[in-house]
DNA sequence: TTCATTCTGTACCAATCAGTACAAAATTTG
DNA sequence: CAAATTTTGTACTGATTGGTACAGAATGAA
């Protein structure tokens, strides 16, 4: 296998690009800005990303979601009380000091931007969010089975409720409510589950 | 007052522009497309909108919200049971046949796009959404006072919950859940209020 | 050390972006 | 009618967009 060695790792540059897309969105993230963040030139980029900016965006979303989902699954699996873990997971959203404060949810943002523009990408994003919902459903079902939570509602309904809570809070928090109100709102919604 | 008469009504062209911004977002809505929808040329546009595209965007949001809020206030005032009216208002979101299906909430979309980009516009949008929340709070407080709903939670908390429900559903619906599940999710959240 | 292969950086591209300049058109006033 | 005023349509601007072409750099194999 001859040839000049490549100077970058694909997963690494996708991760860098994802940060730019997360903050700016698809349209507003310029190719120049993305390449600068990735630390590679146009020659290399268009050789390895034949689909250009769109391919990079989709891979950014895929990788980002994949990391989030697997980290979440892992921490839930290791947790003594998965439902309590889920609560802290949501309550982190009310931390105004968080670095990602104004950025919201990368997937939610992408869904907003792509829903009316690109059906293929919309479906892709929807699938990723449904995976997140599935994690919620599983935790709820298990918690129900173990009598950790008491409810007469189905795990599916409650799971979709948590996904919707996630989607909602990631919008609402950007109105810059004070942290306490946001936390109270989240707690109220979590108490609805069990 | 002499001079060539203008061929357009300001409120009317803003309304047309709002439709384009609502569907495409700020960045993706091109000046050409906006002007075409508004039915006026560049000469007229830049004469009356000195602030260009950004001014048009802000006025679109203001006008859109103003219309929504006053219509909502009016229908609530005329309603026999304001809380029941609010329920139908939310349940309309689950109608997949709705024309505005994929567009979500204009203000929510704008908040997503502007939150990390333009603090002035973000604040403006936040204020509009807080006005919507205020309407929810008022209806809830009145309904509590009249014993239409029973709850030990404050109207403020429940109002913020409804705003967050609004924000959330407008994202979640774009995952293309089936109408029945979406309606069940909304009903579940409304039942939490009273 | 030469060759084939692979990757990189730069120069370049047409298309599109929001916005400006300005002459002509359409009106009221005198 | 002519003059003053206001709006309109078009031609044009420089900047930026995502993307391409390609020469040359860096490697392994022969």
UniProtKB/TrEMBL annotation, chains A, B:
<feature type="domain" description="Tetracyclin repressor-like C-terminal">
    <location>
        <begin position="89"/>
        <end position="184"/>
    </location>
</feature>
<dbReference type="InterPro" id="IPR001647">
    <property type="entry name" value="HTH_TetR"/>
</dbReference>
<protein>
    <submittedName>
        <fullName>Transcriptional regulator, TetR family</fullName>
    </submittedName>
</protein>
<keyword id="KW-0805">Transcription regulation</keyword>
<dbReference type="InterPro" id="IPR009057">
    <property type="entry name" value="Homeodomain-like_sf"/>
</dbReference>
<dbReference type="Pfam" id="PF16925">
    <property type="entry name" value="TetR_C_13"/>
</dbReference>
<dbReference type="Pfam" id="PF00440">
    <property type="entry name" value="TetR_N"/>
</dbReference>
<dbReference type="GO" id="GO:0003677">
    <property type="term" value="F:DNA binding"/>
</dbReference>
<dbReference type="InterPro" id="IPR011075">
    <property type="entry name" value="TetR_C"/>
</dbReference>
<keyword id="KW-0804">Transcription</keyword>
<feature type="domain" description="HTH tetR-type">
    <location>
        <begin position="14"/>
        <end position="58"/>
    </location>
</feature>
<dbReference type="InterPro" id="IPR036271">
    <property type="entry name" value="Tet_transcr_reg_TetR-rel_C_sf"/>
</dbReference>
<keyword id="KW-0238">DNA-binding</keyword>
């Amino acid at each position: 296998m001859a040839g000049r060695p490549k100077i970058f790792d694909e997963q690494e540059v996708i991760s860098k690009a994802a940060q730019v897309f997360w903050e700016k969105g698809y349209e507003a993230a310029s190719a120049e800005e993305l390449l600068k963040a990735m630390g590679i030139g146009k020659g290399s980029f268009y050789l390895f990303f034949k689909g250009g900016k769109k391919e990079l965006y989709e891979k950014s979303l895929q990788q980002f979601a994949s990391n989030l989902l697997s980290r979440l699954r892992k921490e839930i699996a290791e947790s003594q009380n998965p439902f309590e873990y889920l609560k802290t997971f949501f309550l982190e959203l009310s931390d105004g000091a968080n670095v990602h404060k104004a950025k919201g949810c990368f997937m939610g943002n992408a869904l907003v931007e792509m829903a009316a523009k690109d059906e293929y990408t919309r479906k892709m994003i929807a699938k990723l969010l449904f995976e997140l919902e599935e994690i919620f459903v599983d935790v709820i079902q298990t918690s129900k089975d173990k009598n950790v939570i008491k409810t007469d509602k189905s795990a599916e309904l409650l799971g979709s409720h948590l996904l919707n809570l996630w989607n909602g809070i990631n919008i609402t928090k950007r109105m810059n409510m004070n942290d306490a109100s946001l936390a109270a709102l989240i707690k109220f919604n979590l108490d609805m589950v069990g």
